What does this fold into?
Amino acid sequence: MRIFNASPLILLLEEIDEPDIIEELFNLDQKLFIPERVINEITSKKAKKNLESLINKGKINPCKNGNDETLSFMKNRFPMLDDGELTVISAAYEYKAKNCFVIIDEYLGREVSKKLGLNLKGVFGILLELYESKKITKERLIKTCRKIDKSNFRINFKEIGYEWVIK
It folds into this structure.
């Protein structure tokens, strides 16, 4: 099970326009979810259109925002997070299953997820997983990472030891 925050979807569905990455991920794990509150954070026409297409195909499923009590607790404990991040983290916290991943790229959201003992991945982690499972080729991995590097999205490939994907 994977619960998406908005920024990874905005990157894949709009900035680099690769919605098929979500479809390939679905082929690995058919439990992809996006909370209703996060759906509302996706406002650009292109990203909305791609997201609606994925939802209509059953590749990603809308889910409830999570328990109000858990959300309130998280909001009080981590006021620096926005509503979308809080919703995703709260939902994953409620599942707390080993196979439940928070898909989030923002630094603070990742740090809170780690602090709570949640599994997490970002866009690059998804790409590596798809590559390692042979769902995408090395060439596709490199091409997609180069598109990310040229986008407004911040992944420091050199800092994480994967500079070769953008050379």
Notes: The radius of gyration is 15 Å. Residues 83-95 form the longest helix (13 residues). The chain has a mean pLDDT of 90.
